[in-house]
Amino acid sequence: MSPDTRAARNRTHEQRDDSAINSRLVECSNCSAIGMAGKPCGHCGFMPETRPRYVVTTDGELGLVDRGRRVHTREWTDDAKLDFYGQLIAIARERGFKPGWAAHKYREFITFPRWGVEPRPVEATPEVRAWVKSRMIAWAKARSAA
Question: pTM of the full predicted structure?
Fold first, then answer.
C-alpha cells in the first residue's frame, strides 16, 4: 500500500469504539430484554425506529433563505419575463413544438403572457433548459401513471 492511499490510524480511537456514545441501557419495546441504546436487541434483533418529527408547512412561493432565516423572494422585472418567454419560444422552435407550447410553459412558471407582440426567440440558458427538461420528465411520468 502506498503512503498516499494509506489512511491515518489512531489506536486510542479504535479502542474507544463507540461504547461511550451508546452506553445507555434501554428496554426492548418488542421483547422487554435489556440492551444497549442505538443497537438492535441482542435477544430478538428488533431495532426501534425513531419517531418522525412534525414539520410545519404552509402553501406559498419558494424563496431564497439566508443565514439569518430571512426569505428573499425574487421579483421578476418585465424584461426578465420577456427574456424567459423568448427562451421558451426558441426551445419550442428547435424542438418543433406548436406555437402555444411556449405560452403554456410560461404560464406554469409565472402567469399567462400578455404582450401585444410575440417576443423574438433568445438563446436558452442552461437553467431554462434544465427547467424545461424537468417539466418534460414530469409530463412523461404523469402520462405513464395514467
Answer: 0.51
| Residue 83 sits in the same domain as residue 139 | yes
Q: What are phi and psi of 26, to 5 degrees?
A: -135, 160
| Residue 34, domain extent | 15-47
Quote the Cα angle for 84-85-88, to 5°: 90
| Cell 418585465, residue located | 78
CB 43 within 8 A of CB 33: yes
Cβ 71 vs Cβ 63: under 8 Å: yes
Rounded-to-integer distance, Cα 2 and Cα 59, Å: 55
pLDDT in tens, 75-124: 778 888 888 989 999 999 999 999 789 888 888 877 776 767 678 899 99
Q: What is d(CA 114, CA 47) in angstroms, rounded to the nearest whole number?
A: 59
Provide the residue count of the chain. 146
